[in-house]
Design a protein that fits this description.
It is built from ten helices and seven strands. The protein is α+β, with helices and mostly antiparallel strands. A hairpin with a 2-residue loop joins β5 and β6 (108-121). α4 (141-175) crosses α10 and α5 (182-202) packs across α6. The longest helix is centred in the middle third of the chain and has 35 residues, at 141-175.
Length: 305
């Protein structure tokens, strides 16, 4: 490749903001998860006794100033103080199934009859809930905390490392000195644009039809696609630089072997897949993964302890 980095910016000189290195899962997150699980395991029962705050009360309108309200179902949630229903929520408290009461809803006087009242019994966040979750080796709330960390800590660390690596790559692209072969860049973008265009067309998406409803020519569609690809050129050079400096390279033989593997996996012909692929796209994906692997390993020392 003719295009290259002439002087790669030393990202180790950059100050990594403290927030980028944060990864610890706060107890509040686990508490919120347990609250949601307790709600999922709550039960409801129909009651015939006096209604209380927190109940759901289904009523029917038996009398109203406006005829359109008669026989309508009205749901009340005493304690929630929903706008316009505050008075009705107060009036229904202490009433029983079958009783009638007068109230106001949005300045309209109604006589409602209680048809049904349902009470939720929220499960407590305790060891009984932990057992009900059915998670192996989780028998207490303390076990659940441990299990949650086992499930998510590694992912959170990796996410923080990715964030730091991405920050470094953005700064490297801004601060490094590049020698760009414009003809090579255009060929690179045009090749990828053609592959994108053919792939989208094969998938039933016509790139000649824009989001604005405009119809353009194939040439114009390819030109737009090539312009979109330009932003990936500098990152590709950076990924290549880090990978090759680390001794990681992908040859034509590697590319052919990967196409063979993909063809066998998909049950397609290798020659057909070869027409839909480009070695630079193959290299970009592999070099990107390798570069992130290198930078993420370096980023670990910036993570909070």
């Amino acid at each position: 490749m003719n295009s290259k980095i002439v002087a790669c910016y030393d990202y180790s000189k950059l100050e990594v903001q403290e927030e980028l290195g944060r990864w610890h899962i706060p107890d509040s997150e686990i508490e919120a998860e347990l609250e949601a699980l307790a709600k999922d395991h709550s039960r409801e029962e129909e009651i015939t006794g006096e209604t209380k705050n927190g109940d759901c009360v289904r009523c029917i309108c038996v009398k109203a100033e406006e005829e359109s309200w008669k026989n309508r179902t009205v749901l009340l949630y005493p304690g929630r103080r929903l706008p316009g229903a505050e008075g009705a929520e107060e009036a229904v408290l202490g009433k029983k199934q079958g009783e009638e009461f007068v109230c106001q809803i949005k300045d309209k006087e109604l006589t409602l009859k209680i048809v049904q009242a349902v009470r939720s019994h929220m499960m407590k966040i305790d060891d009984e809930l932990a057992v009900k979750l059915g998670i192996p080796e989780v028998h207490t709330v303390e076990d659940y905390y441990r299990w949650y960390h086992e499930q998510h800590d590694k992912e959170r660390k990796e996410k923080a490392c990715i964030g730091i690596a991405r920050y470094w790559l953005e700064e490297i692209s801004k601060r490094s000195e590049f020698d760009i072969d414009e003809a090579e860049k255009k060929s690179w973008c045009d090749t990828r644009a053609r592959l994108m265009y053919d792939g989208m067309m094969a998938a039933g998406y016509d790139m000649k039809k824009t989001q604005e409803g405009e119809v353009i020519t194939e040439e114009e569609a390819l030109e737009r696609a090539a312009e979109e690809q330009e932003r990936y050129f500098i990152p590709y050079i950076i990924y290549s630089y880090f990978s090759e400096n680390d001794g990681f390279t992908l040859t034509e033989e590697d590319f052919a072997a990967e196409i063979e593997r993909m063809a066998e996996e998909r049950g397609e012909k290798a020659e057909d897949l070869m027409k839909q692929a480009d070695i630079t796209m193959f290299r970009e994906r592999a070099y990107q993964e390798h570069t992130f692997h290198l930078l993420m390993a370096d980023a670990e020392k910036y993570l909070e302890v």
